[in-house]
Amino acid sequence: MSEPPSYPSIDPTTFDLVVVGTGLPESMIAAAASASGKSVLHLDQNKFYGSHFSSLPILELTSFFNSNSTPLPPSSSSTSATSSDDYSVVNLAIRPLYLDVEISSFSTQLLDEHSNKFNLDVSGPRLLFCADSSIDLLIKSGASQYVEFKSIDASFVGDESGKLWSVPDTRAAIFKDKSLSLMEKNRLMRFFKLVQVHMAAASDRDEGNENQEEGKESEISEEDLESPFVEFLTKMKLPSKIKSIILYAIAMADYDQDNKEQCKDLLKTKDGIARLALYQSSIGRLTNAPGAFIYPIYGQGELPQAFCRRAAVKGCIYVLRMPVTSLLLEKSSGVYKGIRLASGQDIFSQKLVLDPSLTVPSPSASPLDSFHESFQFLCMRDVKQKVARGICIMRSSLKPDISNFLVVYPPQSLYPEQITSIRALQISGNSAVCPRGMFVLYLSALSDDAHQGKKSLNAAMNALFTCPDSVNLESSCADQNENAELKPTLLWSALYIQELATGQFDSISFTPMPDGNLDYGDVLDSAMKLFQKMYPNEEFFPDTVEHDDGLSLEET
Amino acid sequence: MHGRPRKAPVPEDEAASAAKAEKLRALQSQVLSNHRHKIYTEEALELSTRLVEINPECYTAWNYRKLAFEHNLTRSDSNPNSVKSILEEELRVVEIALRQNFKSYSAWHHRKWVLSKRHSSIEKELWLLEKFQSADPRNFHAWSYRRFIAALMDRSDVDELEYTQNLIDKNISNYSAWHNRSVLLSNLMKKNVEGFTEKDEVLTKEYELVREALFTDEDDQSGWFYHLWLLDQTVKAKSPLLAVEGVNSSTVNVEYGSNLNQGLVWKPLSTYKSRAAQAWITQLSFPNADLHSLEAYPVEITVGHCQGIISSSGFHYSQSSHFVFTVRVQPVKKELKEGSGVEKISWTDENFYLCEPHFVESNLVAWFHQLCLKNEHEPVANAWQVKIIEEEMKHFCMLSDCKIGKLTLARLLTAYDALMSSGKLVHSQEILGLYIDLMKLDPPHYQYYKNEHSVVLLQQVMSSRESLLSRCFHYRDLTSSSRGYPMCLRLNKLSLSRIGSFAKLLWVQMLDLSHNELQSIEGLEALQLLIHLSLSENKLSSFTALEPLRQLKSLKSLDISYNEIGARSIDTTRYLCSSPLSNSIGNEWEQDRILVDGVSMTNYWEAFFVLKGLNLTQLDVVGNAIADENFTLFLVRVLPTLKWLDGVQLNLF
């Protein structure tokens, strides 16, 4: 369709670090390395920032999925590995990380008119806890000055009837809750207070205060801390309804904690309590955010961009639309030396960080057997799990009067075989992710296989929407369903399965794929660890004095 | 606004505040000078504006502004625009001052004054209040101003009630909002506003609301206070033991012989010169009675037939009651008065013999029992009251693992027993158990629980015939009791810290309260017939704690041995103490202060104050820190009738 792109040439050609891909972890590493005075080249084959963390208009999103869901044929001009004068050249390929992409449009006309006004998150639903470490990092790195946030108004627990129950996460919410009995309110609040006392005592200890006389008995015992959280909740005499709220809507556990055989991640009490404490300290931490969460205006793709801007300020060089075709390895030792760009230019660096979708095609294709072992990890990176994600566009809110909110479907809440919780996040046009008056719903659920994952998403969608059933996809349109319940009607949806590739550190490092969590905690952790392994003597964003203004939150 | 620690000033702050003070002084003298010379020009006003902006508490400046305001208004009366601008300017200045210190009494007062002058631009006031109240939702200045504005605007109490609901929804600890709610509801019920006519429905709804708050956070006090208020609204009419005022010959009819109310003077038995008292006394005189005829004179008493008796909580007693008894007039036994034959009372156990039941029943006990207002005449407690209390009891059983839950349960059970009345204390054992738990659970408030426990325990003792009989004794044996010793009620060794149930003790002439933990004997003044009293082995720590004894004119023997009188210079267990400088005793003391040659009596003013008017023949003070040789000398002088002091006959000196 278009002319073969004319690539710019890059000068200089030698860097301390080359980062390929502009997802959030790559961008953090680029920004951190630049802040530590390293010379960094940051490349992305796409014309936009964010890679797997980007927010895209509908068409770009579709083509992003297309290019990442089927392996690209190896380019004809190069064999798997060739030798130039000084280096062995190992070709790179795109690894398909999105499977079963299913895009359905029920109102083509409406969406076509506005298709460029969308900023759809590739790795939704995702939020920031107001008190989590990623907020601190945003402020510390100075990236916060480039992002504005919107507060999430509420969170709910959903059931199969489509009803949404407020999560009683604060004292005022418990007081006002109509669904809890008096004793349930009492037990829940007592539990919250126990956690507060425990956390206060723990932070006292951290500060080295020896004054531990009082409150000792109300602290949680070491034995309890190591026990499964679900058992501790039972021990605290919390009724099952409240246990479920705490486990899945506050501590955000993924797997059914009551089902020990299938639970792949049994939450320990100490972790559960840490998550509950994070949730609680998030509430009211920021002035304009009454709830626990905030979301970046214009979508989560703003976050990697903010770090990239920060990196650019510190001297990092950016080149978009620049695919990397091959690795350059020293002939004798197989040590990494540099990369070859689609432009043909060779760039040399000491370190390389690659986006998780890049890989080396099947090792058998490579004639350079001697290098196989050292580079086997490039193709053997393990993919343990999958996450099913969904993006839905509606013309009305799932909950009248509330624009931005989170819904959690705990395991088994929708159908008996549902073993993971399903999270759904509605973001409205007032956060600039879609035209005003429209709403975007992001869904996700961990799953072992694509079928199971899709089933989860569909169950949640059936509970929430009047779904145009698959038979009359073409004919059904929003206005035809006047007699249907007052559930909103779906205009467009994308359902897909994403591989949860993990990150890896070696002479060449890989960043991980977006995980199945709601927050950025693990993304930040892995970026920080990777950075520290590369640069053990450098601080991950040294303290500077310039950051001052904290976080900007749009008034609600 | 709450719970913020005060920081020590740093030197820079001190320098700044010194500079500010300098500026303030200059400004202040200029304003005062303008005030004196009645200068109300724009420049002069501007100076006062600057002054109140810096120091909103400067009330002279506000007063000056009031004068200026009126002065300027009269000058511009014709022009509505300039009136408006004067008004707005004044409100603006107050607003700035309030921003500086929104707890300034003077500034709030000035604002009220301005608004009450001309009812304009009130709309803005609610908006402003919203700002102040969101900055500090519990600021009582703003709340009282809110009530003022609501009244001025004629805003309905229902709307204001809704507002308190919103604030409570946001934060259940907003004590001010709960309080305002109680004020508004009282008004609405009093005015019989639609939707608030049925007290039981209104209260039931409020109980439901506050229950949600209490179960959500039982550690928060605000809701509990509101709950206490609701409980008070539910059972107020029934609460006994309230001090009343307004007892006189028009509110109480006494018919005896051929007299109706003739020359009857009712006196409150109160220690604090208050017009209210739990016990009132009057004396009937039978001038024409034949002392030896043993004639019985009927006495008829009617009370509550007209309004006028009001309890200290504002409740009007209007339950018309009527009762009749007879009196016999007898000559006073001379031998007791003469003193030579006065025997020493010894309160040891071997001197007391349990009374025969028939003796007790033929005695004063039964006689006084007839005098109680009978419950048959009163309507039984309203069904809704019982229902509400039962409902609350059911709920707070569930919270009985926390201290305030236990306390509330104890209060509810007490209220329930009082409602069901008829003297049966169905729940007393349970209530006592709750208070015992509370004493262990909450040591800082031990004394309060102990006191409540004591009162209930005493009620329990006095409530049944069996338990009362087990505490009635003869002093010495039957033969000696015929020589003039009254029956003795022994309430010893009960570890009482407070006494109550006085209405059931009115007949007592000989009372043993020894071996308890009494710190006060408040209320004992009602026992007008008391002749012999033992308070030995208690925790009384001053003579002023014995003040009720001053009203007991029949008291002959008093045992206060082994207490803590004089051990501490100040009695910290009591809040209200008389002092030698107070009017009540000052003059008397001055006149008599040099009683004993060479020995200063200054330290004994409290003892003097309590004992002076008594005609004691026997006193035991041994075992108190105050008791020494000087005190003995003092006592002998103050109590000329004394025959026995600490077991020693005084004639032997």
UniProtKB/TrEMBL annotation, chain A:
Stretches with biased composition (Basic and acidic residues): 203-219
Statement: the UniProt record of this protein carries the keyword Cytoplasm: yes
Keywords: Cytoplasm, GTPase activation
InterPro entries cross-referenced by the UniProt entry: FAD/NAD-bd_sf, GDP_dissociation_inhibitor, Rab_escort
Region (Disordered): 203-223
Biological role: Substrate-binding subunit of the Rab geranylgeranyltransferase (GGTase) complex. Binds unprenylated Rab proteins.
Protein name: Rab escort protein 1
Organism expressing this protein natively: Hevea brasiliensis (Para rubber tree)
Automatic annotation (TrEMBL), chain B:
GO terms of biological process kind: prenylation
UniProt KW keywords: Prenyltransferase, Repeat, Transferase
EC number(s) on file: 2.5.1.60
GO cellular component terms, A-Z: Rab-protein geranylgeranyltransferase complex
GO function terms (MF aspect): Rab geranylgeranyltransferase activity
Top class in the EC scheme: transferase
Keyword Transmembrane helix listed: no
Chemical reaction(s) catalysed: geranylgeranyl diphosphate + L-cysteinyl-[protein] = S-geranylgeranyl-L-cysteinyl-[protein] + diphosphate
Source species, domain of life: Eukaryota
InterPro entries in the cross-refs: Leu-rich_rpt (IPR001611), LRR_dom_sf (IPR032675), Prenyl_trans_a (IPR002088)
Role noted for this protein: Catalyzes the transfer of a geranyl-geranyl moiety from geranyl-geranyl pyrophosphate to cysteines occuring in specific C-terminal amino acid sequences.
Family, similarity comment: Belongs to the protein prenyltransferase subunit alpha family.
Protein name, UniProt field: Geranylgeranyl transferase type-2 subunit alpha
Taxonomic source organism: Hevea brasiliensis
Source organism phylogeny: Eukaryota, Viridiplantae, Streptophyta, Embryophyta, Tracheophyta
